[in-house]
């Protein structure tokens, strides 16, 4: 019973670390390196011209705006879904639980075609919304819908296990100390969920930023209006404009990094604050 | 030794590829093509396989790959093993030469009609009864007309539609500035830019977007036949010649030793049986007897060419399609 051996139930640390690192390098770092290589090839001026063109800036605005809207929507609905799945027992719960993963399993292009068929003016949802003046398909709203659809599992799946693991004793203790329902939720449950909730939302946000397949079928793809950054990247590739595409891709990558960095910083700040308290 | 291992590899591949492993290993070629040619080549390939069997006794197979023409060109450049390409755009084939040295410079001279076995032109598909009264290109730039075309940046089909609008205006006014303004108005009326030709057809027909779809006459006529009376085809009195250039990809064919088969396949496209299939898919063909037989399905049209009106593909590439070119200038909305 030596504490020195803890964490090494299986032998072969060196080998498994080696495999892990080579695998990560191969599937994550190599493509990124190739991207930066292509980007670096072009020279900074060309690269910057591609990144800062008026059309590219319009795509950032649209992509960020719709991704934020989709994430806000997912934060609310995803929280609700995770809560219902973790806290209640009802017939069909397992089915609902499985359905949450569907956006992961469904090819995004299929999702895009299905969504655009539903939300087009000739589809059943579109036919209801259009008379109200709500244009979803072939408008920015459609992009947000597609993003929300493909990224909601991140929020649910991040929250659900944490919710399920919350010790009922903690809540009971809060009740016995005289806290009301709202106070228990706001001061006991929610703070415990916050890290998972934030990272779920951040993952959903990054996923929404990078979404392509589902969007191009519902967006309308009109330059300056409904063209997302991933599509413009694709268009640049079609034009054999590799530096342009690499520049846009690097910009997207930087955005994703910033998102993840912000979330990590938030969590660190929270941990420190709690450590002091 | 090396040769034997290659043979073994080929055999294994053939065994894996064909479920009936007892048959002699079949030779295969891959035809990499544009988006809306799926059904056409699905008809041509069996006819070719039968023809090849009859003339050489060999069992062969032709595999197909379809997507936007430029996307396909890029795939081939990045290593997709295409023995032949059948594109809808001279610039996309030329890219195989300019960016990858996969084909010789004189590729257009290797087969008749500048290596284009059939042709078509951008035509209009409108809703039943043509409620917006769309007859010619001038009707497309009127306010309130919604146009659906595939994205000219990703689709050869869409590029022809843009170039046709520009060429029409240039031919009429002889003034590049006016033609550019016309093209700008034309693109401003577009309500959906799908990335490929077939997606655009779906947006127009199934999802009710826009008042007019502009696509190859072949796709327009084929769609009208398929979906019936809720749409109708309007062939404009003037349009632009859309060529469908084909070539053997020499580098791949030499590597895979498929040149004879690949060349045989492309030559077959010019024979009356293949030309008949093409005409049945509403492409215009050059074979005299076939073209006479199918004359009634096409409206007489004055056909402008890129060479006459726009100074050739090289110039189009430089002036219109290059980054910052005329297309970029009129494409982006202010």
TrEMBL record, chain A:
InterPro entries: CysT_permease, MetI-like, MetI-like_sf, Sulph_transpt2. Keywords: Membrane, Sulfate transport, Transmembrane, Transmembrane helix, Transport. GO terms for molecular function: ABC-type sulfate transporter activity. CDD domains: TM_PBP2. Residues 60-267 form the ABC transmembrane type-1 domain. The keyword Membrane applies. Its main location: membrane. It is a multi-pass membrane protein. The complex is composed of two ATP-binding proteins (CysA), two transmembrane proteins (CysT and CysW) and a solute-binding protein (CysP). PANTHER family: SULFATE TRANSPORT SYSTEM PERMEASE PROTEIN (PTHR30406), SULFATE TRANSPORT SYSTEM PERMEASE PROTEIN CYST (PTHR30406:SF10). This is Sulfate transport system permease protein CysT. The lineage of its organism: Bacteria, Pseudomonadati, Pseudomonadota, Alphaproteobacteria, Caulobacterales. The gene is cysT.
UniProtKB/TrEMBL annotation, chain B:
It comes from Caulobacter mirabilis. It comes from the Bacteria. GO terms for cellular component: periplasmic space. It is found in: Periplasm. Belongs to the prokaryotic sulfate-binding protein family. Residues 1-22 form the signal peptide. Transmembrane segments: none annotated. This is Thiosulfate transporter subunit.
